[in-house]
Design a protein that fits this description.
Oligomer: single chain
Radius of gyration: 21 Å
Helix content: under 10%
Largest sheet: 10 strands, mixed
CATH architecture of the largest domain: Sandwich
Length: 284
């Protein structure tokens, strides 16, 4: 080997090693500094869904046929048929099938992923890029629940709905807060956002929640459509209950009190596809 080739190989080795050190050891992709952060915010947690399987260090499956307290029809499973990684995205799939588990027999299966005790936050910005399913009785949601229920049972400790969607209203999503007393003495406030053209089925959209002390804001594709600054709980003064840690939930429900049940027009399977989840804290 001549001296020029030796130095070329040595230089190439240094470059490769140096680049490998910039890889993010958490998610196996790239350094978090390469993910763009909105002005005034710093990335603190993310899942780009670029691993071969769902990251169990960040998500846990809820497995039950309880109906979500809303008379939903699905059985949530941890099977790979109902949730998996495909083409760098998380897929949550609702399937019409007979399934029997400890909670009995159901005619639909789906998945519900939670970040509890793996991703819990008090305040922050939450960006979720997703493409939504369609059809009567299809009810995907991206939402947050309190980690510790410090102020009592639902909804005295709060609930933050970043995005809810009814499959028969394909151009509309909802953002809502639940609070007040424990059921049935609870209340909620919120509104909806409608696309000026197209649907949430056709392409990915970014659903954003910015949560600071005393103020919560909702965006779709960077467009602010709601700000809330008034809420309460029977257990403590404002800004409770939204002054505690909350965790994230990604799920796709079938049927229920709000959307109604699937009918003859509903096509199965249906799926919600999540490109990424990114959580930011206010930059100091």
């Amino acid at each position: 080997m001549n001296i020029k080739n030796y130095f070329f190989i040595a230089l190439l080795t240094i470059i490769i090693v140096g680049c490998s050190k910039n890889e993010n050891p958490v998610d196996g992709k790239t350094n978090k500094t390469e993910i763009p952060a909105p002005a005034g915010w710093t990335l603190v947690w993310n899942d780009e869904f670029d691993k071969p399987a769902i990251d169990n260090a960040k998500w846990e499956h809820e497995v039950n046929g309880h109906g979500g307290g809303n008379n939903e029809l699905q059985y949530y499973t941890d099977r790979s048929e109902n949730s998996f990684i495909e083409n760098g995205a998380l897929v949550i799939k609702a399937i019409k099938e007979s399934y029997t588990g400890p909670d009995g027999q159901r005619n639909f299966t789906s998945a519900r992923l939670v970040s509890k005790n793996k991703g819990d936050w008090k305040y922050g910005r939450f960006d979720i890029k997703a493409k939504l399913p369609y059809g009567q009785g299809i009810w995907p949601a991206i939402w947050m629940m309190p980690t510790d229920n410090a102020y009592g049972g639902w909804a005295a400790s709060g609930e933050i709905d970043i995005m809810e969607y009814l499959g028969h209203e394909q151009n509309k999503v909802y953002g809502t807060l639940h609070y007040g007393g424990s059921w049935p003495n609870n209340t909620h406030t919120g509104t909806f956002y409608s696309l000026s053209s197209g649907t949430f089925v056709e392409d990915f959209h970014v659903f954003t929640l910015e949560w600071q002390e005393g103020e919560i804001r909702w965006y779709v594709d960077g467009k602010l459509y709601q700000t809330q600054t008034q809420w309460n709980t029977t257990a403590a003064p404002f800004p409770a209950p939204f002054d505690q840690k909350f965790f994230m939930i990604l799920n796709l429900a079938v049927g229920g009190n709000w959307p109604g049940n699937p009918d003859a027009t509903t096509v199965f399977p249906q799926q919600m596809v999540v490109d990424y989840v990114r959580v930011f804290a206010k930059a100091e």
